[in-house]
Amino acid sequence: MWKRLPFRLRGYLITMSGVLLLSPDALLVKDTTVDVATFMFWRGLMLGLVLLLIAAARYRQRLGQAILDCGPAALWCPLAFAASAWAFVGATRLTSAGNVLVMLNLAPLVAGLIGMLFFGQRLRRQTWVVIGVCIVGASLMAAGEVGQGSLLGLGVALIIPVSIAVNTSVASSRPGTGKRGLDTTVVLPLGCLAMLLPAALMGGAQLPGGEDMQRLLLMGLLLPLAYFLIQTGARYLPGAEVSLVMLLETLVGTLLVWWWVGEVPAPLAFVGGGMIVAAMLASSLRDLARQRRKAAEGAPDARRLRDEAAEASIARGEPAPPVGERH
C-alpha cells in the first residue's frame, strides 16, 4: 500500500507526522527553568544518542560510508540543524512567541529561493501561492504577540528560517540511489554534537532539577523521531515544500497551548489557522482533480511515469534523476 502512493504524497505524510511530534517543542522550551546552555546540552545529548542509535541500527557497519555519501550535506545540514536549534531556544527565551513564529514562517519562502538559485529546483506556481497564503495565515496567528520582546531576540529569531531553509534545501538537493533522494538523517547526530559542544563549554553540562529533567526526557523521546521524519521528508519533496509543511507546527502548537494551558487563541488565530488548512487542502484537492481529469481523458500521468521510471532505475541500481527533473 505504502509503495503504491506517489512519492510527493509520501513526503507530505512523513513530514506531517514529524511536525505533529515536533509541535510540543515550544511548550517544553517555555516550561523549563534551566538556562539556555544547560537546555541545549541535554537537548543535544539526548537527541544525538537516540538519532545515533537509529542510524546505527539501520546502517550498521555501513554507517560511516552513508555519512561520507552525503558529501557537502554532511557539513551544511548538521551546522544548519544546530544553528536552528540554538536560535529557536535562544529566541524563545529572549522575545515573544509571536515574533519567533513570524520569523519561522519565512522558512518556505527562503527555502524556495535557495532551491531555485543554487540547486535548480523548480516550484509550481500553485506551490508559491500556497506558500504566500500560509505565510499570511501563520503571521495572523502570531499577530497578537508581535512587537513584544527584545530586538536581540528578533535578530536571533531571524536565524531560524535561514537555517531551516539551508538544511531542507541542501538535504533535498542530494540525489540518491535507493530512494527519491539521499538519506541525510545519518548526519543529524553530527548536528547534535554541534549543539552539545558549545553548550558544554558554556557550563551547560550540569544536572537539572527533577521537574526540568522530566520535561527534557519527554523532549528526548519525541524530538528524535520528529526530526528524523522531517529530514526524511526532504528525500521526497523540495526543501520549500518541507518548510511549508513545517508551518503546521504554528497551528498545532497554538491548539496544544489552548488545550494544555487553557490559553484561548485570539480571533485572528482562528482566521490564520483556517487559511493554512484551507490552502493546503485546496492544493491537494486540485492536484487530485487534475490527475483524475487526465486519467479520464486517457492522457498519461507524467508524475506517475516519473515515479515508475525512478522505481525502475532503483531496481537496476542506477542513480536517481537530478533534482530539477524529480520535482
From TrEMBL:
The protein, known as: EamA family transporter
Top-rank lineage group of the source organism: Bacteria
InterPro entries per record: AA-Vitamin_Transporters (IPR050638), EamA_dom (IPR000620), EmrE-like (IPR037185)
Keywords: Membrane, Transmembrane, Transmembrane helix
Residue ranges of the region described as Disordered: 294-327
UniProt cross-references to PANTHER family, sorted A to Z: EAMA DOMAIN-CONTAINING PROTEIN, INNER MEMBRANE TRANSPORTER
Classification of source organism: Bacteria, Pseudomonadati, Pseudomonadota, Gammaproteobacteria, Oceanospirillales
Annotated Basic and acidic residues bias: 294-309
A matching Pfam family: EamA
Domain EamA: 26-141, 157-282
